[in-house]
Design a protein that fits this description.
Helices cover 36% and strands 13% of the residues. It is built from twelve helices and 14 strands. The structure holds pyridoxal-5'-phosphate (PLP).
């Protein structure tokens, strides 16, 4: 049996009529860039995230970048984040002219280790970006408490965590801003590129909305230099259709993850994801840790099972960030994870039989022997 890593066709087929109808309405109204469909999605998404406002944007990278710009981050500043994330988290910092400063991740949750945060704060620090990696929120209470003590804003990178909860609170609603990507494969995915920032701060919302539209609040009157980072109407209309199904889709992801957990663990050879007790993990990615990961990926591909690696090189060791001066060994947990992570097929429509096939083939291919603990 072939098992794809992701099956967007299976996701869209049951709602194709509704999506076509939503798109037709945008075409009829001619409201393609920003406009009423974006405003309607912003209302729905803010309500879903338990925040007062949402600003629809072109993608998740824009969401991070404009949040930082709106907070006044600029050249000479430092912003703290983690090396175990997608490049966009750090790129957004760099595109403000600021410097990314990394702290290592916790070896069970793979999110920012709050115990390492304080020593990274300097007089130049202007913001902290915890990343809710793979669909699990970072341990926000100690991060928020440290940030409060140092007078720093926390911007959540919630691009992989639509609908995740931390102690009953929604991803994106805990920091001053929550940044989302609606890249098609995300838990809430558009039919192209899209993103959003959610916030409870009306001034931040207003600044982001001016920045996304060439620095204008009134057409052709530019109060500052901005950018074109608007969400388009067709994406907003499609996202409204899909938002209604997000809770059900997340529940199916969680059920699939539960079945993987049951079939794969506990074992010496495979470390399954750890879901912290107060969290609702929404499994954007189901990543296990294994030895000889690259060989295993190839063996599974040979059996028709598509896996992926998120991410093979931690950001501090990326060529683009060589100038930051980090070396191998700077962040041992992130480095270990990058060598061992293997993302298994995960999407809401994955069948029980597909999960069983993946688990059986994985266990047949893993090298025997116990995995070491990450902690160095
Ligand atoms: C953690 C994280 N941050 C930021 C982004 C950037 O989002 P986008 O691709 O919509 O620009 C992504 C998307 O892959 C992501 O996974």
């Amino acid at each position: 049996m072939n098992v794809p890593f992701l099956d967007l066709k299976a996701h869209h087929d049951p709602i194709r009529k509704e999506l076509n109808q939503a798109i037709a309405e945008v075409i009829d109204a001619g409201a393609f860039a920003g406009g009423p469909f974006v405003a309607a999605f912003e209302r729905d998404f803010a309500a879903y995230c338990d925040t007062r406002f949402a600003a629809g944007l072109g993608n998740g990278t824009d969401a991070l970048w404009l949040s930082l710009l709106a907070l006044g981050v600029g050249p000479g500043d430092e912003v703290i984040t983690v090396p175990s994330t997608f490049m966009a988290t750090a790129e957004a910092i760099s595109f403000c002219g600021a410097r990314p400063v990394f702290v290592d991740v916790d070896d069970r949750t793979y999110t920012m280790d709050p115990a390492l945060l304080e020593s990274a704060i300097t007089s130049r620090t202007r913001a902290i970006i915890p990343v809710h990696l793979f669909g699990q929120m970072a341990d926000m209470d100690p991060i928020l408490e440290l940030a409060r003590r140092h007078g720093l804003p926390v911007v959540e990178d919630a691009c992989q965590a639509h609908g995740a909860l931390y102690k009953g609170r929604k991803a994106g609603s805990l920091g001053v801003a929550g940044c989302f990507s609606f890249y098609p494969g995300k838990n809430l995915g558009a039919l192209g590129e899209a993103g959003a920032v959610v916030t409870n701060d009306p001034e931040l919302e207003a600044r982001i909305k001016v920045l996304r539209d060439h620095g204008q609040a009134r057409k052709y009157f530019h109060s500052r230099i901005g950018w074109n980072a608007r969400m388009d109407g067709i994406q907003a209309a499609a996202l409204r259709v899909k938002l209604k199904r997000l809770e059900a889709a997340n529940s199916r992801r969680r059920a699939n993850a539960g079945l993987y957990d049951e079939l794969l663990g506990p074992s010496d050879e495979v470390v399954t994801p750890y879901a912290a007790p107060d969290n609702r993990h929404v499994y954007h990615v189901y990543a296990v840790r294994v030895r000889a990961r690259d060989r295993l990926l190839e063996s599974l591909a040979g059996k028709g099972i598509s896996c992926a690696i998120h991410y093979p090189v931690p950001l501090h060791l990326q060529e683009a960030y060589r100038s930051l001066g980090y070396t191998g060994g700077s962040f041992p947990v992130a480095e270990r994870c990058a060598a061992e992570f293997l993302s298994l097929p995960m999407f809401p429509e994955l069948s029980r039989e597909q999960v069983q096939t993946v688990a059986t083939e994985l266990m047949a291919c893993v090298s025997p022997g116990k995995l070491q603990q990450c902690t160095v």
